[in-house]
Write a structure and sequence with these properties.
- The chain has 16 helices and 11 strands.
- It is an alpha+beta fold and 422 residues long.
- It folds into 2 domains: 2-205, Metalloenzyme, LuxS/M16 peptidase-like (Cytochrome Bc1 Complex, Chain A, domain 1); 229-416, 2-Layer Sandwich (Cytochrome Bc1 Complex, Chain A, domain 1).
- The strands form 2 sheets. The chain has a 6-stranded mixed beta sheet, sandwiched between helices. The chain has a 5-stranded mixed beta sheet with strand order 7-11-8-10-9, sandwiched between helices.
- Helix 9 crosses helix 12, helix 10 (272-280) packs antiparallel against helix 11 (311-327) and helix 12 runs antiparallel to helix 14 (373-382).
Length: 422
């Protein structure tokens, strides 16, 4: 079982002891991210994540932060999503005090030195350029921009060039004060950990100001559907596409039915998309179907890299597989295989203390509740073939289809005409 302690100031600590490891991961999750931004500060959450590693009170610069973790053979990183931001350190359990010490200093005492901010602008611009030059990454952001339109859910986390070049130290401090409050932070610790001991250490180290979270994530607006295709003309040797529909929020009653459906369609190398579009027709090198689930919305999509000349045929082939699961129930054996695949993959993932810390922390910071592996298994086992077909019929409709494309193409209408079920 997991254990949880909530301090008087609202800071939550959740732990999970894993007997099979001598490692421990300390993960700090904050209810922040690009959904909390306005157009004027789009990208600030991500930029701020970078700045926490640039020096604080005890570890005064990037070198000292890195050396503290490197000297014990640990690893550390951070990430910015749309709904939460994470900072983690993974070390041998005997060095967990170092992990806690570094993270506490970062979050409580970062200096946001203007000179460091200016230097980091160049680093983030190179990250921005890298994504622009990586169609497999960029295609997903283009797809969400198409589905959600010009609102925070439709903006990517890196932000805009204008914001990257213009944000100031005052912007960082203002944003931190509004969202990096103890009631909006979860410290998740998984691995070789003793709950009571780590709670006592956190109580002594993480002396936050007594502040409260000052605003919520921007709700998803139901904007008018302006177009169904987003084409990014780019000289590439391969066409990249993402074809899908709006999905369900993470806690929707059919969440796990949708997960099973995406595995059947394109979740692994024995899935329908892989066997049909890649193996039998030879249209794609990579192809997969998945869902992205947020607290109040979601998408379902198939992502593929195809030959430049074969993209039309690939789109038609993907749509054929969507229509098949609408018209005909999935076989019981195929559903059983999907269930065992998900459960097996989850068991492998959660052998890693980092993955378990993320699972614990995510549900705590977003929903103030816990999700453990055993509960996921229970929900998966309840799914029936009737559930899969009901979900398919609900989601896969022509007037819900969206397509993003990156490649040497210049005619959006050409692709729009393909978005129909034969």
């Amino acid at each position: 079982m997991y254990k949880k302690t909530t301090f008087d100031n609202g800071l939550r600590v959740v732990t999970k002891s894993l007997e099979s490891t001598q490692a421990v991961t300390v993960l700090i999750l904050v209810g922040a991210g690009s959904r909390y931004e306005t157009k004027e500060i789009n990208g600030l959450s991500h930029f701020l994540e970078h700045m926490f590693f640039k020096g604080a009170k005890k570890y005064t610069n990037t070198k000292e932060v890195s050396e503290a973790i490197d000297s014990v053979g640990g690893s550390f990183n951070a990430f910015t999503g749309k709904e939460y931001v994470g900072y983690y350190v993974k070390v041998a359990s005997k060095n967990q005090d170092t992990a806690l010490d570094v993270l506490a200093d970062m979050l409580l005492n970062s200096k946001f030195d203007p000179e460091e901010i200016d230097r980091e602008r160049g680093v983030i611009m190179e990250e921005y350029n890298m994504y622009q030059d990586t169609p497999m990454q960029q295609i997903g952001w283009d797809f969400e921009e198409l589905v959600y339109g010009d609102q925070p859910m439709g903006w990517d986390q890196v932000g805009t060039k204008e914001v990257i070049h213009s944000v100031t130290r005052e912007d960082f401090i203002a944003y931190e004060e509004k969202l990096y409050s103890p009631d909006n932070i979860v410290i998740s610790v998984a691995g070789d950990v003793d709950h009571d001991q780590v709670v006592e250490k956190i109580k002594n180290l993480f002396q936050f100001k007594d502040t409260k979270k000052q605003y919520q994530a921007h709700p998803v607006q139901d904007l008018p559907r302006e177009k169904s295709v987003r084409l990014r003309n780019k000289k590439t040797e391969q066409g990249h596409l993402m074809l899908g529909v709006p999905g369900y929020p993470e806690r929707h009653p059919d969440h796990y039915a949708l997960k099973m459906l995406t595995i059947v369609l394109g979740g692994n190398m024995s899935s329908r998309m892989f066997l049909s579009v890649r193996e039998r027709q030879g249209l794609a090198y990579y192809i997969s179907t998945s869902s992205d689930d947020y607290s109040d919305t979601g998408t379902v999509s198939t992502n593929a890299g195809v030959s430049v000349d074969g993209i039309d045929q690939a789109i038609t082939a993907i749509l054929k597989e969507y229509k098949e699961v609408v018209d005909n129930p999935v076989d019981e054996k195929e559903l059983h295989k999907a269930k065992e695949y998900l459960k097996g993959k989850l068991i492998l993932r959660l052998e890693d203390s980092e993955e378990y810390a993320h699972l614990l922390g995510k549900y705590e910071v977003l929903y103030d509740e816990q999700m453990l592996m055993e509960k996921i298994f229970e929900e998966v086992d309840k799914v029936t073939v009737e559930d899969l077909q009901r979900v398919a019929k609900d989601l896969f409709k022509e007037d819900k289809l969206f397509l993003s494309v990156i490649g040497p193409y210049d005619d959006e209408e050409r692709f729009a005409k393909l978005l129909k079920f034969e």
